[in-house]
Structure formats: C-alpha cells, structure tokens
Amino acid sequence: MTTKDFFYNLPPELIAQTPAEPRDSSRLLRLDRNSGEISHHIFRDVVDFLRPGDCLVLNDSRVLPARLFTDDGVELLLLQCLELGAGTSRWECIVKPGRKCKIGKKFTISNIFEVEIADVLEDGNRVIDFRFDSASDFYSLLDTVGNMPLPPYITEKLSDKERYQTVYSHELGSAAAPTAGLHWTPELLDKARDKGVSIARITLHVGLGTFRPVKVDDVEQHHMHSEHYELTEENADIIRGANRVIAVGTTSVRTLETIAKRFGEIAADSGFTDIFIYPPYNFEAVDAMITNFHLPESTLMMLVSAFAGKDIVFAAYDEAIAERYRFFSFGDAMMID
After folding, report:
1. HSE (CB half, 13 Å, CA atoms) of 149?
2. Distance from C-alpha of 90 to C-alpha of 85, rounded to nearest angstrom
3. Homologous superfamily of the 3-63+160-336 domain (CATH)
4. CATH 2.40.10.240 for domain 67-145
5. What global pTM score does this model have?
6. Of 110, 149, 152, 106, nearest to 129 (Cα)?
7. Residue 328 near residue 292 (C-beta atoms within 8 A)
8. pLDDT tens for residues 233-278?
9. What distances in angstroms separate CA 140 from CA 132, 204, 206, 250, one per listed residue?
10. Is the dihedral of CA 121, 124, 125, 130 positive or negative?
C-alpha cells in the first residue's frame, strides 16, 4: 500500500481558519462503517447516537503555548521536556531558521528566558536550555510569552487561547490539540451522562510527529514518533465496564489500541507509544470513534481508513467536500460507528 493511495483533492477554502461558535455548533457527519450509510447533523446531535452503557474516552492532555520567538526573531517550538529544575529547563525543540541555531548560540526572550542551544539532533531538532528566575514556575512564565502552536494551514490569528484547548483539558504536555475534543461543551457531556453514558479519561501528549506528512512511498516504511500516554486504574475500570467504547479522537484510539495490544485487554498503564495504524488492522479496543477530517496522505487518514475501510472513508470524504464541510483542526467532525 502506497502513501498516494490516501490522497484526495481538497478545495483550500474548506480548510477551517477559526473554530465554530459555539463549540457544539460544528457539523457532524455520521458514517456507518458496515453499510457505508452517511447522514448529516449538527455536533450537538451526537448524544442521539449514544446508547446507555457506552463509554466516551476523552484525551485530557492540555496544549502548551509552545511557540516562542526570541528577541531577534528566531522561532522555537517546544516538543518535549527533557529536564525541569529550579531556574532551569531543557527541551527538545524545532527551530526556524536553523542556520542561526548552532551549538552554544544564546538568545533572550522578553527578559524572561535566557536560552542556549545545547545540541543538534540527527533530525535537525535542537536541545535547548532555558534559564529563568529560580523563584518562578516555568509553565507560568511560558504562559505569559508563549503562543499556541497552531498548524501552518491556519493563518488567522487565534483571539482566545482556550479555543485551542478542550473544555476538559487538564494535563499539560501536548504540542497540538486533540482536536476531536474541541466540539464538546460541559453541557453536552452532561447530556451524555444523563443518558447513561460513562466518561473515561486517558492522557496522551500529542507530538507533532502525529501530524507530519508521510515522506516514504511505502506506507510500511514510515516510522511514528513516540508520545507519552497514561491510563489510570480508575479509568481503565470504567472502560472495561462499557458496552461500547467510543474513542474521542485518534489520540484516544492510539492509546487504547496500544494498551490492548500490550495486555490483551484494557488495563492501567503508562509509557510511550509509536503505534502506527493503517489498513489492514484488527482493532481490539475501540468500537466507534469521533474524529475530525484529516489531511491527505496523513497517518490519521490511514488510521480512519483502517477502521472503516478505505473505500467507505473516501466516499464519505467526497460527500463531505460536496456538502462543503469544514476540514482539519478547527473543522467539522465525523462519528464512525
């Protein structure tokens, strides 16, 4: 199977530049993965398709305001914290332009951070040391100077940082939002609970590797970057008791399938996953998923194709384009069951 098998043409005007207001007013395409039947709804209608005994699995990771600019215009994107101490922190970062970021080079950021390039990795990423007031909290300082790491296809400025966070985000650590969760409101989650739907939380800190394009022709030759995940015993128990497990977002899918492959069931666990799901794949944990519309030739396009079948998914995308759905991070949603 080749990467080109997962290409489709998307009119650029269908790439959503701003989030829907209110959150649950985005559109929802429901896809029956057995019959290929499609129906069109508003996201708040999703509760109508949930059943008593279902379990929604939410990724509660919170996005870091991870895009920083030095005082002389170098862009840093925080990927992974390597060390954190009093007055110091070390991160793996993407930098732009790379030619200005040689080992030993020092920068300042708004009189808050002093940064130094400590190492250059094989993939071009940098290891960067941050120094700051030892009486201050790194993440509080980051919140004052950092920007949300919106994908490059979003060119509109985000006026409210919280609109790139889910309403249930809690655990800081992601470089990108688990965007299927952006449609939920507290009231909509309460309606699901009132219907007898349980809600469980996992944490997977989303790295940019999930969204990077596949650059090899042979899908099997692509390697995913590792991302940290955690599932507590309390939440594992909720999931095990469900009639249907409905993953909200591909990050929840990847976490649940990683654990199920490791233990043969859902169990409390934490660690790193580089699971890459593409057709054919036997799903062991997930019965249905709620997800956004994904980029052509992306690993996420491959994942949903594995879940519902490539032909069925591409037919649904063709209809979504014809119906002028909004695509990608701030776009509309699908429920595949």
Report:
1. 26
2. 9
3. QueA-like (3.40.1780.10)
4. yes
5. 0.91
6. 106
7. yes
8. 999 999 999 999 999 999 999 999 999 999 999 999 999 999 999 9
9. 11, 22, 20, 29
10. positive
